Amino acid sequence: MRYFEDQNFFPTPGVGKINKNLNIELQKIKITGSTTLMKKTKAMRLLWVVLLWCIQSDFALALENSTLLVRSEYRASSGSTGPSTLIWEFIPTGDKSQMDVYVKGRPEKILSLTYTKEGRLKRIIKLIPDGEGVKEIKSDCEDLPIVLSEGFPAPYDYLAPFDENLTQVKLTKQAGGASFSTLFTRGIEKITLKDALQLKMIDKSRAARIKEKDLGQGLKLISIYKGKERVVRQLWAPDDSFWIFEETSLRQSWNITPQ
Predict the structure, then answer these.
(1) Which of 79, 103, 154, 169 is deepest in the core (most CB within 10 A)?
(2) Cα–Cα distance between 233 and 244 in angstroms, integer?
(3) Cβ(149)–Cβ(234) under 8 Å?
(4) Using one digit for the tens of pLDDT, what is the confidence trace for 101-146?
């Protein structure tokens, strides 16, 4: 896998420059106790447009001690160009109820996430390149039991990790004055550290650190399904405030924050 910082990840010269004539259809999303599912083709287009936009600046972001680092590896798609691996920075701001999300080493903010005191995801602001400027897409989601990233490149899914009883979720989207609902099922299973290592959800160094904790409860794997199709899953350690591993149809992500 090649990292975003690798200067040679683009196969042809000049492809790193934004094509000013590029026309991306962005759907305005209105969420009222709802979320929306993006088609995989639009998701991949959005991914590469966001990444191409990010490389325009040479400025670096200063790391903070409280910054979370996440490595995401993206599944290859037909005709796609660009990096297969990215490092994301989740940087707390203000009273730490908000986190701003960047590609590591780049100054352009991609996401702003606001949480409640209880740790629920309250508000999302997506910052999407739009011609010469940036377009903000805001979603209020405090009343939603879960929040899905729906193909967006940065991993911000919220799966209600501290709710042991949630089993079914109906999410509704508004389009053209009509409402469309989708039923999701949510499952939680306990897995051992050995199983997580074998499944490559965790590396040996992080496993060694987790091993020092009380794992009487085991690791917790939360999965969201649409029918028989798994949409997303996250691996959590007891008492942690952020997941260890996440997987969607688009990417696999690991929490690589130094401990």
Answers:
(1) 103
(2) 11
(3) no
(4) 999 999 999 999 999 988 899 999 999 988 888 999 999 999 999 9
